[in-house]
Amino acid sequence: MTTPFASEQEHQPLKVALLGCGNVGSQVARILLQDADSLAARTGARLELIGIAVRRLEAPREVPLPAELFTTDAESLVKEADLVIELLGGIEPARSLIQTAIAHGACVVSANKALLAAEGPALYEQADAAGVQLSYEAAVAGAIPILRPIRDSLSGDKITRVLGIVNGTTNYILDQMDSTGADFATALAEAQRLGYAEADPTADVEGHDAAAKAAILASLSFHTRFALPDVHCEGISSISAADIEAAKEAGLVIKLLAIAEKSQSADGLAGVSVRVHPTLLPREHPLAAVRGAFNAVFIEAEYAGELMFYGQGAGGNPTASAVLGDLVSAARRIVLGGPGRTETTTGQVAALGIDQVQTSYCIGLTVTDQPGVLAQITQIFATHEVSIETMRQTIHHGEAGEPSYAELRIVTHRAVESALASTVQKIRELPVITGVTSVLRVEGI
Ligand SMILES: NC(=O)C1=CN([C@@H]2O[C@H](COP(=O)(O)OP(=O)(O)OC[C@H]3O[C@@H](n4cnc5c(N)ncnc54)[C@H](O)[C@@H]3O)[C@@H](O)[C@H]2O)C=CC1
Ligand SMILES: N[C@@H](CC=O)C(=O)O
Ligand code: NA
């Protein structure tokens, strides 16, 4: 019986350069060395790790690796390689080193969503022109195979909507706050300790990491290059314990979602809305069950219907799994020959601004407890053509002469964001309103 890689014995080893030896890089190096035989069998050529670019040769390392592999000369290392794995993070020198690798004919594997969201189109074009592969499965939802299914398995379908929990750190924080009552700072510190968070966790907490992933997901799903400025981004730093508690009472859960969906602006322009923001979901929604640092991407496609991809979106080993999958795939292409995968940009749809988004909203208000208050509020909703789905009122009776007040939680039908914003603005101006405690978007109701 012949193996698919009859040339296995003959093909010369492929030289692999690794840039970065942090959480992910150290695990990639370990697996490349430890699983060298099985990787060679699957690839048809040995994947020979020729060097690891680091900042300091003597830095203490949690994963023991042969000292002779370390170098501080990333540039020279890249020029010798057939395959380059970029796990430095950040824009520079990652971008220049990837450009050098491509110019020298190397295939590149990267997990750097920040770079790909900012500079992806230029890099893909350079790679296409050079006939080499630039792969980045690890950049979105870590270990979960999601980019390849969107690009390849669903290439005969039409994706209409993508909803993703694509940042493990924020999902971990929100889940800890929801399930254990942990405070924000403690949950964040634990996510950092577990290796989920970015070097600067602001990128996680403020939604920038998820926004970069949303741009990549939207680009592949809608065959159009979306970049970071196309993504509306709100993080979770304004989510309070009270918001979590109120959501719980209403049978909802707060998740930071990356959303990319086909939509239409008020004036009929077809486009795609790409956004990241805290979102209320019913507790029975499949994404509500995604706990801890896990990620999941929920896709709606015209023919496939609903699909959900679930798994570990962060951490050294899970991310290394996706990196190595890309590496083996790129190496096989070198062994077998043939063209690499290319991005398609045939969609050319417009990115819609956040003011044109249509979704449901949950608005928390505190109001004075007096006759006619609800009528004033509902009148404003009616004037702005925002339809109310449910309204819940809790009266708090004042103690020791304090006046009583009411807490209102109003959930709307789908409404246009700009109309909702004007509604909330007018409500704030009502003398009977003592506070707008939260305005959160709702999906899945
Ligand atoms: N940690 C995770 O769970 C995931 C990380 N990623 C991405 O993978 C990449 C790597 O992430 P981590 O390993 O977590 O980061 P890290 O911060 O643990 O590792 C990066 C390493 O690169 C080194 N480095 C930075 N600039 C360098 C330079 N100029 N020369 C030599 N070394 C340099 C740093 O000293 C550090 O050791 C990032 O792009 C990140 O966004 C993607 C998915 C999940
Ligand atoms: N910091 C990111 C790591 C993976 O991309 C996260 O928390 O998900
Ligand atoms: Na992935």
Key features of this structure:
12-stranded mixed sheet; Alpha-Beta Plaits; 445 residues; binds the ligand N[C@@H](CC=O)C(=O)O; binds sodium ion; 27% strand; Dihydrodipicolinate Reductase, domain 2; 3 domains; 6-stranded parallel sheet; alpha/beta; Rossmann fold; 18 strands
Helix and strand layout, with pairings?
Blueprint: E1 14-19, H1 23-34, H2 36-43, E2 47-53, E3 70-71, H3 74-79, E4 83-86, H4 94-103, E5 107-110, H5 113-130, E6 134-135, H6 147-153, E7 159-165, H7 168-179, H8 184-193, H9 202-205, H10 208-222, E8 232-233, H11 241-249, E9 252-264, E10 270-282, E11 294-301, E12 305-312, H12 316-336, E13 350-352, E14 358-368, H13 373-383, E15 388-396, E16 405-412, E17 415-416, H14 417-429, E18 433-442
Parallel strand pairs: 1-2, 1-4, 2-3, 4-5, 5-6, 8-10, 10-13, 10-18
Antiparallel strand pairs: 7-9, 7-11, 9-10, 11-12, 14-16, 14-17, 14-18, 15-16
Structure description:
NADP(+) binds at residues 19-26. Catalyzes the conversion of L-aspartate-beta-semialdehyde (L-Asa) to L-homoserine (L-Hse), the third step in the biosynthesis of threonine and methionine from aspartate. Belongs to the homoserine dehydrogenase family. It catalyses: L-homoserine + NADP(+) = L-aspartate 4-semialdehyde + NADPH + H(+); L-homoserine + NAD(+) = L-aspartate 4-semialdehyde + NADH + H(+). Its cofactor is a metal cation. With 445 residues, the chain is α/β, with parallel strands linked by helices. The protein folds into 3 domains: 8-139 and 316-336, NAD(P)-binding Rossmann-like Domain (Rossmann fold, 3-Layer(aba) Sandwich); 147-312, Dihydrodipicolinate Reductase, domain 2 (2-Layer Sandwich), CATH 3.30.360.10; 357-442, ACT domain (Alpha-Beta Plaits, 2-Layer Sandwich), CATH 3.30.70.260. It contains 14 helices and 18 strands. The protein has helices at 23-34, 36-43, 74-79, 94-103, 113-130, 147-153, 168-179, 184-193, 202-205, 208-222, 241-249, 316-336, 373-383, 417-429, and strands spanning 14-19, 47-53, 70-71, 83-86, 107-110, 134-135, 159-165, 232-233, 252-264, 270-282, 294-301, 305-312, 350-352, 358-368, 388-396, 405-412, 415-416, 433-442. Strands 7, 8, 9, 10, 11, 12, 13, 14, 15, 16, 17 and 18 form a 12-stranded mixed beta sheet that branches. Strand 5 (107-110), helix 5 (113-130) and strand 6 form a beta-alpha-beta unit. Helix 4 (94-103) runs parallel beside helix 5 (113-130). The protein is elongated, with a radius of gyration of 25 Å. Bound molecules: 1,4-dihydronicotinamide adenine dinucleotide, the ligand N[C@@H](CC=O)C(=O)O and sodium ion.
